[in-house]
Specification:
heterodimer; A: Four Helix Bundle (Hemerythrin (Met), subunit A); 7 helices; 5% strand; B: Rossmann fold; five-stranded parallel β-sheet; two-stranded antiparallel sheet; globular
Chain lengths: 197, 182
């Protein structure tokens, strides 16, 4: 295989046909958005966007609160009615959203506990075998870390709490997946995004 | 450095979480975009895609009805809609290797792991605008060329027969998933 310096994007479509595949160069419709204006260092679109985000950051605490309430309700439904498909998905999505949003909302130390709950739900072959105590410990930890975030030692406590949750969860997941080596590789493998570790 | 006129681009944001849609809209408006449409699940997203014909789709993975992966597979159907070549940026909290591989094989253009950052989103948009990738069509795949580097030590069989392909070097989606602000 050879490689070469990339030519400028074409404006018109082209198709090269080979024995078992086609290489299609689509019309470059987005060229319309490439600006010819000279670079202006005082006009930084990333800085503008960060400033725009900052302008709505006053709402982030209440958003985080509502996400925690959603998680709490999903937990209550699972404990009352079991891990049916809809209940399982509701709990997973609530935890998954907190995992992805908490850092943006200013609570990055919450993400790891939410990630651990996601792993517990996603990687357990029969979710009805998930101990309710472990679900409760995760949800209570997520809510507590958020609630106590103003404490000076909040991040340190969150780290200790989350590490223990993760250890217990991984121990459970390894046991539940002992006959599934492909899943064990995923469970025990490192995450791609270090922020989620 | 490439400059982008964001007000010449039409975006479709698909995410079931209203907070994340608001954040994305805020960031896109901050970049200078005006045309930003929203949908709250995969089905509504597909309908909005057909109706608004966006230039760039930013989609979550985990959504009700059908998810971002299924949505991508539906969009990447040659002849089935107005623009199967549309740029698709997958924004997701999933960060496992198998997830990135599955997203790549469904035909996404870029992968952005949460937590979202203005810089990470901006760089991916610039990349899809300034560095469009050719599409590959085989019996089992239709989407952006998945080859982003050349491995000189590769000794296995050539899986594309009948011609050698140029490779447009870019950071792999795996590398991009590792660093959210990349």
């Amino acid at each position: 295989m050879r490689s070469k310096q990339r030519p400028p994007p074409r404006d018109t479509a082209a198709v090269a046909t080979y024995a078992d595949h086609e290489v299609i160069t689509p019309e470059h419709k987005l060229r319309k958005a490439v600006s010819d204006a000279p670079f202006d260092p005082s006009d930084d679109p990333v800085a503008r966007a960060e400033k725009a985000l900052e302008s709505i950051s006053g709402e982030f605490s209440s958003w985080m609160e509502s996400e925690c309430e959603r998680l709490d309700k999903a937990r209550a439904t699972v404990l009352a009615s079991g891990f049916g498909k809809a209940n399982k998905e509701a709990l997973f999505h609530a935890a998954h959203d907190i995992k992805g949003e908490s850092a943006t909302f200013g609570y990055p130390a919450v993400a790891a506990a939410a990630d651990s709950l996601c792993r517990l739900i996603e990687f357990t072959p029969d979710p009805n075998r998930i101990p309710h105590t472990l679900v409760n410990q995760h949800v209570d930890a997520i809510r507590a870390i958020y609630r106590e975030y103003a404490r000076s030692d909040a991040v340190e406590l969150a780290t200790v709490l989350t590490l223990r949750l993760r250890e217990v969860t991984d121990e459970f997941l390894v046991h539940e997946n002992k006959a599934r080596p492909d899943m064990l590789a995923i469970i025990l493998g490192p995450p791609l995004a270090p922020d989620h570790a | 450095m490439v400059r982008i006129d964001f007000n010449r681009l039409r975006f479709l944001v698909i995410d079931d979480n209203a907070h994340m849609r608001r954040i994305l809209r805020t960031l896109l408006h901050g970049f200078g975009a005006r045309d930003v449409y929203e949908a709250e699940d995969g089905a509504a997203g597909l309908e909005a895609f057909t109706h608004y014909i966006p230039d760039i789709v930013i989609t979550d993975w985990a959504m009700p009805i059908f998810d971002g992966l299924e949505l991508t597979q539906m969009i990447r159907q040659p002849g089935a809609n107005a623009n199967p070549y549309v740029a698709i940026i997958m924004l997701t909290g999933h960060s496992e290797k198998n997830r990135v591989t599955a997203a790549r094989d469904a035909g996404i253009t870029e992968f952005l792991a949460k937590p979202i950052s203005a810089k990470g989103l901006y760089q991916r948009i610039v990349n899809v605008v300034a560095n469009p990738r050719p599409f590959i069509k085989t019996k089992t795949y239709f989407g952006p060329d998945r080859r982003r580097s050349v491995n000189p030590a590769y000794v296995g069989p050539e899986r594309r027969k009948g011609g050698k392909a140029d490779v447009i070097r870019q950071a792999s989606l795996m590398e991009k998933a590792r660093v959210t602000s990349y």
